[in-house]
Every structure is written in C-alpha cells, then in structure tokens.
Design goal:
There is one protein chain. The protein is mostly helical and about 120 residues long. The chain has one domain (about 10-105). The protein has 5 helices and 2 strands. It has a two-stranded antiparallel sheet. The termini are far apart.
Length: about 120
C-alpha cells in the first residue's frame, strides 16, 4: 500500500483523534471501565489528580495496560485505520476523514482558547 503526503497527514490526524477518543474522552469511558479504575484525588491547590489502576489478569490486564498508555493505543489505532483503509476503503475513508476533521477542529479550538485566555 502506498500513500501520498496528503493521506499521511489525514492518517496522522485520524489516528490522533481516535487515540484520544479511546484513552481520554468521557464519551468512551464505558469502554475503559471494565479494564481501568480511575480514582480522583483533590490536591492542596484545589486541582484534581486522577490515578488510573489496571484491573484483572491476563487479557483483561493487557487491554487495561493498552488503554492506560496513550502511545500504545496510538500504535494500535494507526494499525486499525491503515488496515481498514487497505482492506475496506469504501467504509474506512469516511471514518478516517471524520476523525481527521475532528482532530483539526480540536487543535484549532485549543489554539483559539489559548489566544483568548491571554
């Protein structure tokens, strides 16, 4: 499979967004809950620190380890998106584009928030 520079960046953004979706976003907490337990701790300065504990043994623990590691999940998300594109492009191109556009929008929003807070 050969991809050009444009598609490379589309895959980068799509993989970034899918990884964040699985590892951090509240909407997918139900996916992480069987494998991870999150405990919040109030710090003296008022901020909240979250400690993640991995549940279970064997495969359950492996999935928990995977979901607790942004870098590990990112590798598997990239493999999933590239394999899907290679095997079923008709189905995966819209998914990849939606994820890539959402990633771009989240980056723009972060920049706008930082500029407006200064």
């Amino acid at each position: 499979m050969s991809i050009d520079f444009f598609y490379f960046f589309i895959f980068v953004f799509a993989s970034f967004r899918l990884t964040r979706l699985l590892v951090f976003d509240q909407i997918t907490k139900w996916i992480r809950t069987p494998f991870l337990e999150e405990k919040e701790h109030q710090l003296e300065d008022g901020s909240v620190e979250i400690h993640v504990m991995i549940k279970g043994r064997g495969l359950k623990r492996w999935v928990g380890e995977l979901l607790s590691c942004y870098w590990c999940t990112g590798v598997w998300c990239s493999i999933f998106l590239l394999a899907g594109y290679g095997l079923l492009p008709t189905y995966f191109i819209p998914i990849i584009l939606v994820l890539a556009v959402a990633a771009g929008a989240s980056i723009v929003e972060t920049v706008v928030q930082r500029i407006s807070n200064h």
